[in-house]
Design goal:
The chain is mainly α and 452 residues long. It is built from 19 helices and no strands. Helix 2 packs across helix 6, helix 11 packs parallel to helix 15 and helix 16 runs antiparallel to helix 19. It is globular and about 60 Å long. The relative contact order is 0.13.
Length: 452
């Protein structure tokens, strides 16, 4: 079933690409920056109004949460690609099946992850050597946090559907509303009610369910009939599920494998004590402001490449790759440079402890020197997945990032055990994985042209 007509200004596969990529990426960038600000608010509030231990407890959970969540969250990449391709091909019936299958999968995945998180949080915290003075606080935070994962999963799948048709603004608006709610509740629970990590966790899940309600309302009432959600039609179409899994599962496995390597690094960070955990948590939030624009380019690459594939406009793909590479480099120079210059003032916002600031500055300086390689490692998989190849990016991450991080930790870090050598594993493995991702892109591009 084909759509009768489309507005050209809504079709990503038509018109000047640079302007379209910028206009598409900016709302995602703003959304992710706001998310970072709201996440940073968690650490700032507990770091300033609770304790350094509470701040470290929240930060110590990130690697484990990502490890458990990312496998299933990666399936939303499959949603973005198949909806974008169906939209580019102007196939209304296919889009309807993709939308309802994706939302159904998000509900099942969210409940599954919630159960796994509740069961595994304590054993995982013990396994990575979480310091004894924060492990109980970390466990409290995680148990509450995972109650909100179903809402987060549904929001992310819903946002992927909207982005696939070129709508990156409304997901941003909904995140702004839920994020402001999160920040206000953080201050109320921690400052007014004198709660600790439990207050921050409850604020987070309340805001997650709010964002879920907003995204579902948008899909149910959407003026674009092809992506309109009808709760009575929720089901799993086997053909669409297979496509989501084909593209999304390798993306999820890539995130999972990446998270495993981050858990190992977090374990090494934990071995330096609570001050190092707090410093790394604060620095990680600050680094996110450089990673966020690059993540927006990744989303743009997936959507634009997917729609170009659906419209059979293969010549667009090279242009998309060039634009995303230029934007990644410019972001690294400008935002990365400013982050290095103002690293200590930024860290002091989170915590006034001089040792926390010193250690955090070390991490930022080591990582920012080569952060461009991280951008390449993230953007090029978006191009490759948009073409329908998802296994290759996963293998590049497995070998270039995960495997070599393990090798680095058991060799160079073990031989020269200091924080500089620990954090150096990031840029080294980014570069290795990035080279593999670029090679994978050119391989997929060649295959597509041969099959055209």
């Amino acid at each position: 079933m084909k759509m009768v007509s489309y507005k050209k200004d809504k079709e990503i596969s038509f018109g000047p690409m640079f302007r379209k990529i910028i206009l598409f990426a900016l709302p995602i960038m703003a959304m992710n920056i706001l998310q970072l600000l709201f996440n940073a608010a968690d650490l700032v509030v507990v770091g300033r109004f609770a304790s350094k231990e509470a701040m470290a407890a929240v930060g110590a959970t990130g690697a484990i949460i990502n490890l458990i969540v990312n496998l299933f969250m990666g399936l939303s990449v499959g949603t973005s690609v198949i909806v974008a391709q169906d939209y580019g091909a102007q196939d209304a019936k296919a889009i309807e099946k993709s939308v309802h299958t994706s939302i159904t999968v998000s509900v099942i995945a969210g409940i599954t992850v919630m159960i796994l998180g509740l069961l595994l949080c304590n054993p995982m915290l013990i396994m990575i050597g979480t310091p004894a003075d924060i492990i109980d606080l970390s466990a409290v935070y995680m148990r509450i946090y995972f109650l909100g994962v179903p809402a987060s999963m549904i929001y992310n799948f819903g946002a992927a559907i909207l982005r696939a048709i070129g709508d990156s603004r409304r997901p941003m608006y909904y995140l702004v509303i839920s994020g402001i709610t999160n920040a206000l509740l953080n201050m109320y629970f921690v400052i007014v009610l004198n709660m600790s990590v439990n207050g921050v966790a409850w604020a987070t899940i309340i805001s997650q369910y709010l964002s879920m309600i907003l995204i579902l309302w948008c899909l149910i009432r959407n003026e674009e009939r092809t992506i309109r959600l009808n709760l009575r039609k929720l089901h799993i179409d086997r053909e669409k599920l297979a496509k989501v899994i084909k593209i999304g599962l390798p993306a999820g496995l890539q995130s999972l494998l990446f998270s495993i390597s981050n858990v190992l690094i977090q374990s090494a960070i934990n071995s330096f004590g609570t001050a190092m955990v707090a410093a790394s948590s604060a620095a990680g939030n600050i680094e996110g402001f450089v990673a966020t624009p690059m993540n927006a380019y990744y989303n743009a690459a997936i959507t634009y490449t997917g729609q170009s594939m659906g419209a059979k406009k293969y010549d667009r793909i090279d242009e998309i790759a060039k634009i995303c590479t230029i934007l990644t480099f410019a972001t690294w120079i400008i935002v990365g440079g400013l982050t290095m210059i103002f690293s200590r003032p930024l860290l002091s916002i989170f915590n006034s402890d001089p040792e926390v600031i010193r250690l955090g500055a070390i991490r930022i300086n080591v990582l920012m020197v080569a952060y461009f390689t991280c951008g390449i490692m993230n953007v090029f998989p978006g191009l490759t997945r948009g073409m329908g190849y998802s296994v290759l990016p996963m293998l590049c991450t497995l070998i270039g990032a995960c495997l070599f991080r393990i090798v680095w930790l058991v060799t160079f870090f073990k031989w020269f055990r200091n924080v500089y050598m620990l954090f150096a594993c990031y840029p080294v493995t980014w570069a290795l994985a990035g080279i593999g991702q670029v090679v994978s892109f050119f391989y997929a591009r060649k295959k597509i042209r041969q099959e055209a």
